[in-house]
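Hi C.,

You asked whether I'd gotten around to modeling the 216-residue construct. I have! Everything is below, sequence then structure, no commentary in between.
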Amino acid sequence: MSINSGTDRAGEPPSDPAGRREGRVRWRKSAAVAVPAVLAVGAMAVVMAQGALAASFAVSGTAFQVSSSKLSSKGLGSYVQTDRSVDGKGHPVALLGIGEATLADICQAAEVQTPLGTVVFKLTAGGAAGEVTASNLVIDGEDLDGDATFGTAQIGRDASTLDRVDGVRGEPGKFGLQAGDIEVVGVRSHAWSATGGNFRLKGMRLSVGLDGKKCF
């Protein structure tokens, strides 16, 4: 399956005899790889009282990298919305809500310009230390690449009626999609924000370095 936030068209992936769908999940838009210290806030356990929420804060001026070798979830919901930076500029994103997320590993990287040069702010977790988990993980992304396998999908459902992930609902009349259990291998994304409840990051490592290596 290919879903793009630009001019690409969404196609429906083939179904196997078991009724599951396989495909490549993409939200594609030209993106600068760079960004915020707000990712540290998202990654270090933002606990939300109820459900999943869209970004309720002003985002920084550029997108940051998120990657994982494998992500799985009991439920997925998505629709298009607009994030805004402090200057009022709008940034169209695909809001991706993931119910109970389990990741084999995770990497988030922001490229920031400083008087000393380009600094890469990087956070990693998981891997040999164990799985990373989060409740109601919400990523506002420009794109999402990966090889996906998922259960029953509903593409084109009214965004206001989505019910697979608590709190992930858009405006009435807007395009939305949702699916049952999902697994995505080789996750790569440029995102404007990431929030989640009860984030558990085993083996977390935070680093800041001049001309450091990003996630991908």
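If it helps when you're writing up: Residues 1-15, 19-55 have pLDDT under 50 and may be disordered.

Thanks,
B.
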